[in-house]
Automatic annotation (TrEMBL):
InterPro entries, sorted: DDH_dom, DHH_sf, DHHA1_dom, Oligoribo/pAp-PDE_c-di-AMP_PDE
GO molecular function, a single term: nucleic acid binding
Domain DDH: 16-168
Taxon lineage: Bacteria, Pseudomonadati, Bacteroidota, Sphingobacteriia, Sphingobacteriales
Protein name as catalogued: Bifunctional oligoribonuclease/PAP phosphatase NrnA
Domain DHHA1: 245-327
Organism expressing this protein natively: Arcticibacter tournemirensis
Superkingdom of source: Bacteria
Pfam families linked to this entry: DHH, DHHA1
């Protein structure tokens, strides 16, 4: 692993840079990526943000969003940018498998890889690493990277502040998760002072539902929510037909699992969705219950202790059954 001081020296002159993040990017992934983009272009670098897949409409208003290249839509162009890059910033993921087919191109590129991330157990594919599992969001680490490593706080203009605020807001559950420390609030205050319009950002992300999305939410809570009182667990399950019925778009299921966790006494919430080629799971938990352990051990996934994800190649019903069969193993933790 190379010293970060040499990275600062490397960035002293204009470079060809690619910034990438995990597939199906969320607010932290896109917010941190565009935040870093809007910082680096001020220093004369030639920067491209390459996303493995598309992402929700409610994030596409972010400053310089049109500059993002979608790998699944432009694979040859994306691969060319990666191959020619001097530096590749890898944001908000800990494994090249998290960027799907783009991972092979990143691995083969001669460009130096810079990991900025807050997930557990990062794989050893990077040359530089700015990493902490204690950060509430990768956007927090990008802020600290700009201030402490690059020593360029003056580059945090309104565009950068807006993107980083969005990343921190979304990954901290609107500043309510335990990782929202006093330090995070100081950072948020600084971002607002630098131009981030907090109320407007919240409205654009959270108060921008389509009619279909709101009706889908009501359907899930009324018809698809199951509470397993014995295990202090709640789950919402959704089939492909149900997604099609409500014309669900990318990002429309974002945050759905959190509703199950708001039930009094629930320690573990699961959202299990049937997709085209696999079944996806999103787990949320409270306290010290290890949601990530279940995902890693049983569903080829991982994540944070209180927020994790996985997938299954079994049918929707088989996946639901397997999830329920796992719960007795964790009963002592769930009924504390």
């Amino acid at each position: 692993m190379l010293e970060l001081t040499s990275l600062k020296e490397l960035l002293a002159d204009p470079k060809q840079i690619v910034i990438t993040t995990h597939h199906k990017p969320d607010g932290d992934a896109i917010g941190s990526s565009l935040g870093l983009y809007n910082c680096l272009i001020q220093k004369g670098h030639h920067v491209k943000v390459v996303s493995p897949t598309d992402y929700p409409v409610f994030l596409q208003w972010l400053p310089n969003n049109p500059e993002v290249v979608i790998y699944t839509e432009k694979p040859e162009e994306s691969a060319k940018y990666v191959a020619e890059a001097d530096l590749i910033f890898c944001l908000d993921f800990n494994s090249l498998a998290r960027i799907n087919g783009l991972g092979q191109h990143v691995q083969e590129s001669k460009g130096k890889k810079v990991l900025i991330d807050h997930h557990l157990e990062p794989e050893d594919f990077d040359d530089y690493r700015y990493w902490s599992i204690n950060a509430c969001a990768t956007a927090q680490l990008v802020y600290e990277f700009i201030v402490n490593v690059l020593e360029e706080p003056q580059t945090i203009n309104k565009d950068v502040a807006t993107c980083l605020y969005t990343g921190i807001m979304t990954d901290s559950g609107s500043f309510r998760f335990p990782t929202t420390t006093p330090r995070v609030h100081h950072i948020i205050a600084d971002l607002i002072e630098r131009g981030a319009e907090n109320a407007k950002i919240h409205q654009l992300v959270y108060d921008n539902f389509s009619e279909n999305r709101l009706r889908f939410l009501g359907f899930c809570l009324l018809r698809k929510l199951e509470v397993l009182t014995e295990y202090n667990t709640a789950l919402i399950t959704v089939s492909r037909d149900e997604l099609h019925k409500f014309n669900i778009s990318t990002g429309d299921t974002e945050g759905l699992v959190n509703y199950a966790l708001t039930i009094n006494g629930i320690r573990l919430a699961a959202l299990i969705i049937e997709r085209a080629d696999q079944v996806k799971l999103s787990l949320r938990s409270t306290g010290d219950f290890p949601a990530n352990e279940i995902c890693k051990k049983y569903f080829n996934g991982g994540g944070h202790r209180n927020a994790a994800g996985g997938q299954s190649t079994e049918s929707l019903q088989e996946t639901i059954q397997r999830f329920k069969q796992i719960l007795p193993e964790y009963k002592s933790l769930l009924i504390q």
